[in-house]
Structure formats: C-alpha cells, structure tokens
Amino acid sequence: MKRIEAYIRVNKLEDVKQSLEDVGVFGLSVGQIRGYGRQLGRTDKYRGSTYAVNLLPKLHLEVFVTDEQAEEAVEAVVRACQTGEIGDGKIFVSDVIDAIRIRTGERGASALS
What we know:
- The protein is an alpha+beta fold.
- Helix content is 22%, strand content 36%.
- A four-stranded antiparallel beta sheet has the order 2-5-1-6, covered by helices on one side. It has a two-stranded antiparallel ribbon with strand order 3-4.
- Strand 3 and strand 4 form a beta hairpin.
- This is Nitrogen regulatory protein P-II.
C-alpha cells in the first residue's frame, strides 16, 4: 500500500477529485495549509501600500491506495494540477505498513475500499 501526499493549488481540488475518480480512486483527505516553495510568496498592493505575502494558501491531500493503483493515482494528480508554472505543487509517495478499518477490523488493502 502507498500513501500519496500532494501539496496543490487551492483552485485545483475539483480537478484532482475528478481525475482520481476517473482512475478508480474514491477516497481522499484534504486540509487547508499555508506555505511556499520556490516562488517565495508574492507581493500584493492594498490601499496603495505594497506588502509581502510569504505564506501562500495551498491544499494538502492524502490518498491511500494499493501498490497497483499508486502510479496511476500519481499521474492523475499531475494531470489535474500541472500548469507549467512555479507553484504547481509537490507529490510525495511513501509505503504504508498496514491499514485497519475500525468498524470491521479488516486489515491491509481490503481496508482501503
């Protein structure tokens, strides 16, 4: 099993959800976060004053999939989020040792669906 973590633009959430559903991945967790990478934030003007916005709004997604689904799920996220501009985000993939569905006690890949 794999855990796929993605840090993406806020406006790409619906595209990612649809793209993952298209490849058969139906569960995900989303959290609002703030951060920056290479783009180092941005500058905005407000009432004639310029100020730096160092931490930009992003979304943190987590998806748990079987080993067989992992590459297809990663490609789905990339397809949905890639604009070619700085700030598109990052994806991290890590191994999951076990998963347990609390309600039934199912373990492993069967606990994911």
